[in-house]
Design goal:
The complex is a heterodimer. By secondary structure, chain A is an alpha/beta fold. Helices cover 23% and strands 24% of the residues of chain A. By secondary structure, chain B is of the alpha/beta class. Helix content of chain B is 53%, strand content 11%. In chain B, strands 1-10-7-4-2-3 form a 6-stranded parallel β-sheet, with helices on both faces. In chain B, strands 8-5-6-9 form a 4-stranded mixed β-sheet. The chains are: A alpha/beta, B alpha/beta. At the A-B interface, helix 1, helix 5, helix 6, strand 8 and strand 9 of A face helix 2, helix 3, helix 4, helix 8 and helix 10 of B. Strand 8 of chain A pairs antiparallel with strand 9 of chain B, so a sheet runs across the interface.
Chain lengths: 200, 454
């Protein structure tokens, strides 16, 4: 008998009688999900910036120190940021090392925890970009904020094969005496531009 | 058998550090409370999570088959390992066949359980743990002392000294920001040089054949998005039926673990990287046997958040190493003796049965009830030391007979003040080792009441 069959047989032999799957509990919603998202994104160490157009993003970047000091910039959004790295020309993801800023689109945000859904399709030819870059800039259209994780998974349709990640602020650790340190392995900062006219 | 109390002796000898450790973990517990209180439906979420886990365990073989089918359709290679030895051999074969000599790992308690690192190192593979806490304990040649906070037993000065010796950071430096930066530089090099990455699995989804890995540092993402080979190792109990179940577990996991609303990175792997390969190793290693034990099977619902450790008054004051098992604390005090009752038989007794662990468990494992049941099981199987069994026999004989109880009481009240201290506090008095026996009252409670009634 193969290990696979032995394990499955043992699990079948020892499993209890079938119990039902539960109903998903009704989840909390927010009067103003955008405001809640902004607060949550800030609380996880991210920087939330509200703008009305992509041109505003470019203007705001001009006063963002890591951007003005950056030598290598990659952008996966046309006309946002003065990109000088051609990601498609990189043969190997290791060549991403040394990128100072990456500008990536987020698909939607989650108000309850400040997470931004970034599917693999938005990461370009090398998915490592979001974690290898020294600083991460996310750009997300306004009106794309769901209240909670239940609504988030109602929206997600991951490709097969596929890849996707929730990013909630910069890379962080508290492994040394529970002291929070931003910038463990991945991005040292995470800035989110929410782009579009104000809804109210 | 070296029991929990004996192993804890070195830790509790440093009183100042015990209190510091206690406070550090209580701080995490309080952060957890704030998050839990911010979600009105928290209790309903726990109920749902427990029910999903119970349902999944009742059909676990079906769901694993469904996962395998879908994973293969996504281009994932699926391997099965009956025990730790087979798991290690599979991982080594994958690496050896591809000529891999440098592996980066993100946190995986399963590989700790299987002792993968020493196995691979003996076969000439350099293994680097990349979670900061895990890297710290790896450099010290120690196992993690906590499943979520691997280096919680260390002070920043200890780490500063370690990094100075191992990574060449400045002597005497102990600023966490500086030390983290030193580790970042060191581990970047390891990431760039690695030929393969290994991760654990937080949740595997039957419906899609994909899986989710949660980190705050981004080390799992780095380790699996640069080298072309990704190996993910999971215990059979990591399976959940559907994608939408993730919402429930992810809302609970980070809030329970560290008091964050969600981890910085929650990454969904549903197939290999472009031009790369992805292997999933599904491991039993005693889990199917636990499934067969009605009283203890709920321990398989554990999502490894560590909340039961942070809240446990015994763990906080005795440290992770006193348990001598990969998973310490209340949940480890079940999992370890389920694996080997003769080696870990003291662990179910390393609990005050206060029930705090059961109160915070996000999947509602009835931890303190199971610990209590396990004690009875150990007594039945005579795994408990003789002195404890004899003591219990004498106690139950006395407590079952009111006349014997009264006699014993008056004997004690008469004898104790008259006996020499050396006799009372002899090596047989385990209780009296760290404590003073309170002075004997002149009269028993019963005599007192009788007098009052007159």
């Amino acid at each position: 008998m193969t290990s696979r069959d032995a394990i499955l047989a043992s699990l079948r032999r020892n499993a209890p009688p079938v119990s039902p799957l539960p109903e998903v509990p009704a989840a909390m919603t927010y009067a103003d999900p955008e405001r809640q998202f902004a607060e949550a994104f800030g609380s996880v160490g991210g920087k939330f910036v509200r703008v009305t157009s992509l041109a505003d993003v470019n203007t705001a970047l001009k006063t963002f120190a890591p951007y003005t000091q950056a030598r290598r910039i990659a952008s996966l959004i046309p006309d946002v940021g003065r990109a000088n790295v051609d990601l498609a020309a990189l043969k190997d993801p290791h060549e991403l090392e040394g990128i100072d800023i990456a500008i990536i689109a987020g698909e939607f945000g989650v108000a309850e925890n400040g997470a931004v859904w970034v599917p693999g399709s938005m990461l370009g030819p090398h998915r490592a970009i979001f974690v290898v870059t020294q600083h991460l800039v996310l750009v997300m259209p306004a009106g794309q904020i769901v209240h909670n994780m239940h609504q988030a998974y109602d929206r997600i349709r991951l490709e097969r094969p596929g890849f996707g990640t929730f990013i909630s602020g910069p890379s962080k650790t508290a492994d040394i005496e529970q002291a929070l340190v931003i910038g463990a392995h991945g991005a040292r900062s995470c800035t989110l531009f929410l782009v579009g006219s104000q809804a109210r | 058998m070296i029991g929990h109390a004996e192993k804890a002796a070195t830790f509790v000898a440093n009183d100042e550090r015990v209190h510091w450790h206690d406070r550090a973990l209580w701080f995490v517990r309080l952060k957890r409370d704030r998050q839990a209180e911010s979600i009105p439906e928290w209790e309903a979420l726990r109920e749902a999570a427990a029910a999903i886990k119970a349902h999944t365990l009742s059909r676990i073989a079906d769901y694993l088959e469904e996962f395998e089918r879908n994973a293969k359709a996504n281009g994932i290679h699926v391997h099965w390992a009956r025990d730790g030895a087979e798991h290690n051999a599979i991982v080594h074969r994958i690496l050896a066949e591809r000529g891999v000599t440098r592996l980066v790992k993100s946190k995986s308690m399963l590989t700790e359980e299987c002792h993968l690192n020493p196995y691979l190192e003996a076969h000439g593979i350099e293994v680097t743990d990349t979670d900061l806490g895990e890297r710290i304990v790896q450099l010290r040649h120690e196992p993690p002392s906590h499943i979520v906070l691997p280096a919680i037993h260390l002070k920043k000065e200890d780490i500063g000294e370690l990094f100075h010796r191992e990574l060449g950071s400045a002597e005497g430096a102990s600023d966490p920001q500086y030390l983290t930066e030193a580790a970042r530089g060191h581990l970047r090099q390891k990431f760039m040089a690695a030929q393969a990455g290994l991760t654990g699995v937080n949740f595997a989804i039957a419906e899609t054949g994909g899986f989710v890995v949660c980190t705050n540092e981004g080390n799992a993402d780095m380790g699996t998005s640069l080298p072309p080979v990704h190996i993910a190792c999971m215990g059979v109990e990591k399976i959940v039926p559907q994608t939408k179940d993730l919402a429930i577990f992810l809302r609970l996991l980070a809030r329970s673990a560290t008091g964050q609303p969600v981890t910085s990175y929650t990454t969904h792997f549903q197939g290999p990287m472009r031009g790369g390969e992805l292997h999933v190793v599904i491991v039993d290693n005693g889990r199917s046997a636990i499934l067969g034990q009605e009283t203890f099977r709920r321990s398989l619902s554990c999502i490894r958040c560590g909340a039961c450790m942070n809240t446990c008054p015994v763990f906080r004051r005795s440290g992770g190493y006193s348990y001598g098992y990969t998973v310490p604390g209340p949940i480890g005090s079940l999992l370890a003796p389920l694996r080997d009752p003769s080696k870990f038989g003291s662990l179910p007794f390393a609990s005050s049965l206060c029930g705090s662990c059961s109160d915070v468990c996000p999947v509602k494992i009835d931890l303190h009830h199971e610990l209590y049941a396990f004690r009875q099981e150990l007594v039945r199987r005579k795994v408990v030391p003789l002195y404890k069994r004899l003591g219990m026999a004498v106690m139950s004989a006395v407590l079952a007979r009111p006349w014997a109880y009264r006699l014993a009481g008056s004997l004690m009240r008469w004898a104790m003040p008259r006996l020499p201290r050396a006799l009372v506090y002899g090596p047989w008095n385990l209780w009296g080792r760290q404590r003073e026996i309170p002075p004997m009252p002149r009269e028993s409670f019963r005599e007192l009441i009788k007098k009052e009634a007159k």
